[in-house]
Write a structure and sequence with these properties.
Elements lengths: L12 H11 L2 H9 L11 H8 L11 E4 L2 H12 L5 E6 L3 H9 L3 E6 L10 H7 L4 E7 L11 H14 L2 E5 L16 H4 L3 E6 L12 E5 L2 H11 L8 H12 L1 H25 L4 E3 L7 E6 L5 H10 L20 E5 L5 H15 L4
Parallel strand pairs: 2-3, 2-4, 4-5, 5-6
Antiparallel strand pairs: 1-7, 6-7, 8-9, 9-10
């Protein structure tokens, strides 16, 4: 019973092909079955980059997209391209490890700013500006925010842009949960559209459930930065498979249908989680998530999230304890993450309910 998965409901390969045929894209399906197994261009083929660019405003074209085999390698590549041994970067904790640690792997110094549940997991722009140093070159954020599924306010996004512009700093925004806002009116502009030194990192895994396609990308207005990213990428995994590229194009052409289906599942499961929190309010609390398919939950009983995770694992139930998102786990940030993007999630939540019912008197 996995409550640790963080992606939306995946399609099967058969579903993807059938939906593509229903849409009238038989040529795309034919290419999928008959494409030659040659190298693709470094950074992705033009047709895929063009399809990705359609997710953005007019500031972003195919030339502003660099394709990677997923977001992990994209985040690491960007860190190595934009940070160095002489630079300073700003990251946030708790958070996804690739987002937090990328600049450290690139060298230089890093300031980690702590986000707290008591502040709704919100970034404080004043704290960010106070952390800026003369050699600060790179700020890395994750919005919508993993692990809590919260979203920063528009005025916070504007303030971060103004700070970065003032000091000539690049902002990388891990936007893998963008397009999964529970209320579409809450959606923020993509950082690549919003700021001329902004980069947006995205993967098919989260909104579209295309985990096995293994395609992600970075969007950025600054073509010179993309050239630098391409040079660094060359020494990693430069060429995605053409089969993955074609599946990615199929997915993007079906984006509206897939997202509508996935949001229905997410919102249904969120209601079940809200009922769970309400029913066991003496043992659990959270900041209600507003985007994505993830939530950070605090256990108020006598166990740390690590200890709770071990006991749940022994019962066949998976969560992500706080140590997965922070090297230093204090009581105030000892929240575990659950995912609720899949149609199988209610069965896992029932298993969690049964577990809690079994032990709540002991707690």
């Amino acid at each position: 019973y996995s409550l640790s998965n963080s992606f939306a409901e995946p399609l099967t390969s058969e579903q993807l092909i059938n939906w593509t045929l229903e849409r009238g894209d038989k040529d795309l399906v034919d290419e999928y079955y008959s494409h030659p197994l040659h190298y693709t261009p470094n950074g992705g083929s033009y047709d895929l980059r063009k399809a990705i660019a359609e997710l953005y405003e007019s500031t972003i074209s195919a030339d502003n997209i660099l394709v990677f085999p997923g977001a992990q390698v994209a985040l690491q590549t960007a860190a190595r391209a934009l940070a160095n041994a002489k630079s300073h970067s700003i990251t946030f904790t708790p958070g996804y490890q690739s987002v937090q640690e990328g600049p450290s792997h690139a060298g230089g110094s890093v300031t980690q700013i702590s986000l707290e549940a008591k502040n709704g997991w919100q970034i404080d722009p004043a704290e960010v500006e106070a952390a800026v140093q003369p050699n600060t070159r790179y700020i890395v954020i994750n919005e919508p925010y993993n692990p809590a599924g919260t979203l920063m306010k528009p005025e916070t996004q504007s303030a971060l842009k103004n700070i970065a512009s003032k000091y000539g700093i690049y902002i990388m925004c891990d936007e893998v949960y963008r397009l999964l806002e529970h209320n579409p009116d809450d959606r923020l502009p993509a950082m690549a559209d919003f700021y001329d030194k902004g980069l947006s990192c995205v993967t098919l895994s989260k909104p579209w459930g295309g985990c096995g396609i293994s395609i992600g990308w970075i969007a950025c207005q600054d073509v010179a930065v993309l050239d630098t990213l391409t040079d660094v990428q060359y020494f990693g995994t430069a060429c995605p498979s053409r089969a993955s590229e074609i599946q990615a194009i199929m997915t993007l052409k079906l984006s509206e249908r897939i997202l509508q289906r996935n949001m229905k599942i997410i919102l249904h499961n969120k209601q079940l989680l809200e009922k769970f929190i309400q029913d066991y309010s003496d043992l659990f609390e959270w900041i209600t998530p507003t985007a994505g398919a993830i939530a950070a939950i605090k256990f108020k009983g006598p166990l740390t999230s690590h200890e709770l995770g071990e006991r749940l694992a022994a019962s066949g139930i998976g969560i992500k304890p706080a140590y997965c998102f922070s090297d230093t786990v204090a009581p105030e940030n000892d929240y575990f993450r659950v995912g609720f993007g899949e149609s199988i999630m209610p069965a896992s939540l029932d298993a969690l309910r049964n577990f809690v019912d079994k032990y709540q008197d002991e707690w």
